[in-house]
Fold:
Amino acid sequence: MRAGRLVGLLGAATFAAGLNAWCDEKPTEKELAAITERGRALTEYDAAAWHATDALQTANPNTAAGQHYLAKKENGRWTVVFGALTADKTKFLVSYEVTRLDKPSEFGVKKNEAAKEDEGFYLFAARAMELTIADFGRATRPYNVAVLPAKQTEGKDQQGLLYVYLYPAQTKVGTYPLGGDVRYLVSADGVKILAKRQMHKAILDVAP
Structure:
């Protein structure tokens, strides 16, 4: 499960981190637009995961304890699934699907009495999540994880590659962590780390 919530500060952090990637040259307008798009998508992902987790816990507390949560946006709406990889990591078993309703903060919960088997995006995203968490190692504070399709500056998918973001979770009400975030680029099937970028090393707890 997840801890804490992400706010607009993350969008700013992602934007600033992207600028750090071009320390010797000025980024193009397309590159800046791509950075902004990633920051926006990451903020939306976190908000969807937050509301979906709250909705699931309200419907049936602790039912998804120990399971992965993964979010995907289709047709303008986010769906967050909760589940686990099979032992051989060939399928992702979806036990709950939580979908955004008409209002951004309202989500409907669907329980799959027989876990739904996924062999597509959620399988690959779950593999990538476990792979990068293992590489990241033990943290001294709670972290959240987000998995998003990697896109080039012109908006085309990079052959299905995945970005995995690990970032500190909020642990105090009214205070938001900034920094300490890492971005991985992972193969389309979620089994190989292609690149790792430490966005910011220091972590600052910021009050808006």
Remarks:
- The two ends are 26 Å apart (CA to CA).
- The beta strands are 68-74, 77-85, 92-100, 107-118, 143-151, 157-168, 176-179, 182-186, 193-198, 203-206.
- Residues 8-206 form one domain.
- Helices lie at 8-20, 29-59, 121-136.
